What does this fold into?
Amino acid sequence: MVDAVTLDFLQKEPVKEWPLLREELTLLQGPRAYDGSPTWTLYDPAAHRYYRVGWLEFECLHRWGMGNAEHIAASIRTETPIDADVADVGQFQEFLVNHHLIKPKGGQHSSRFAYLRYASKPGFWTWLLHNYLFMRVPLVKPDRILKKLAPHVSWFFQRSFLVTLVLAACFAIFLVSNHWSEFSHSFLYSLTAEGLLATVGMMSLSKVVHELGHALSASHFGCRVPTMGFALLLGMPVLWTDVTDAWRLSRRSERLVIDAAGMIAEMTLAVFATLLWTVLPDGALRSGSYLLASSAWIITLGINLNPFMRFDGYYLLSDALDIPNLQDRSFSLARWWLRERLFGFAIPKPENWPKRREQFLIAYAYSVWIYRLVLFTGIAWLVYYFFFKALGLLLFAVEIGWFVVLPIVKEIAVWRKLIAAHEEPLRPRASWLLPVLLIALLFIPWQSHLLVPGLFQAEAEYTFYCIEAAQVDEVLVKENDNVKANQVLIKLVSPDLDYKLLLAQLKLKELKQRLGSQSLESKLVRNNPKDYEELQSAQAEVLGLRAVKDKLIVKSTFAGRIRDLSDVLRPGEWLAKDEPLGIVESPQATVIAYVEEADLAKLSIDGKASFYPEGGDLSPIPVKTIAIDRTGTRELKVEELASNYGGSIAVRPDEEKQLIPEQGIYRVLMRVNQSELAHNGTIRGRLSISTEPESLASRLARLFMVGLVKESGW
It folds into this structure.
């Protein structure tokens, strides 16, 4: 066990004796660098790790037996065009020592290796923080089987196969375009419980094919595939394949093929599954082909091509640019660029690149940081909702603190050290305006409007129907007419109803005559109770038929405007029972909106707002607040605003098909500041509510406190 004092001493004390290289190291010819210079690959078989070295490092290795940095640097300067100095050789020596590529010799070397081993071994909690989201578990050693399979699948790596795949993909796209409506609507099946289970199965199959593509391509080019297994990504098992041996290939094109082989294999599966879907009859096999085709396309295009995470897209980009460790090197350059722009420390660049490549690497680094900020924040919310509340809160805090806050704190700590070590006082720079503006946007109250989803509609509306199969006799109104209460709108006639009414009236007359003559015959007197009941029934039937006939004269129940008048309302046309004929809407209009709990305190009665109809074709509508609910909405009644129907309020249907909001929302009712409706019908849109100016920091703090109070219940 190495104590802290010894570790500190060994960390500062350099190795004085010239180190010897390990004998089992292998030096392989590498591909040409982007600038045309030669490269070599140094392979450490004990750690199964590859290191890319340049021309200078190769010359150092070639002369390592000289045993002296000055002699090595002088020899390189004399025999090659490289202007090497002792510092260059010393840096390479430090690299070899730190990566355990030299022979341990003597107590000093052994102690230094012990220190490096101790320093590189993370503690349990550090290891857990780095691995709880992604943990690899090796399963099989497939190298021997892959070598046997490689000759049988060599035709996959011929140009003719790629041409065939492209033609088949074009043909599949053509066939699907002719059945696009059926193909797109089949996606709804995958949202069911049975469909989700089948989709997971098909995605697993496509991922097996994906990893086999990587493994077979690596074996095809003579690389060893030591292990295949699965990894736990957020608790979900995903497959992985160790193709580290691809670094021994001297041709960059071969590494690119290995990088893309998984996606090509998955796309091949998707293409032929799509072709099968177009020819198979309906059934389980056709549904499976659809799920396989759709899931493989989505995974390949949406996930594997992502260059911001270390998936296939990242390695394709790294090998295409021939920049090993692309992210680490771009991060180092981006941090240097930021420090120089903010403070001008005049520190040398970590690496010298051509201008365009340097600009690309800096832009790539910042893109990755922005992507990771969004991703890790999303993962934090995911782990919070995935685990039980106590563990979820802990993991949320760890995720935000370790992966988002800690890197920022570390960078600020570096700034402080560099500023303290800087001899000249720092002068204001134009680049300081950016953080100043960001701070101003964060803390200066400037947000004076609240945007929420809303629905414009009449305050009251009434749909009138044809209550019986009838014929149009006369239409007294037209579209957009203003009508009064009880005004006659349409006159309908029904010969069948008239005939039924005539029969009922004749029957009633007959019963009345029969009861009137009961006193003349004793036989009729005995039937009196039965005849009396029939008389009451006949009277009710006549009254009912007369009420129905009266309703054939369609009237307005209140004053308003005619809207959506039926096109079949022409004299002589026949109408079906319960057929809608039109709508009468009131002159007053309202807007129903829903706000989050954190924004409720900012609203007030008679507050002003503007409603912006969806689409932008209509002008804004001024409104004012007339009612604010003080209890949360448990069920969303306005379907037009629900996410299931294209709205922006996230809901989930319960067992009774009720729309339950995913978060706490409160209903706000607005009245349009117009005497008459400016627009017809129901219009979905956004409501801009005027509020007191508020800073973004204040809003975030309030949202945090609301969330904390809401989630504090155990």
Summary: Residues 386 and 392 are 7 Å apart (CA to CA). Residues 1-15 have pLDDT under 50 and may be disordered.
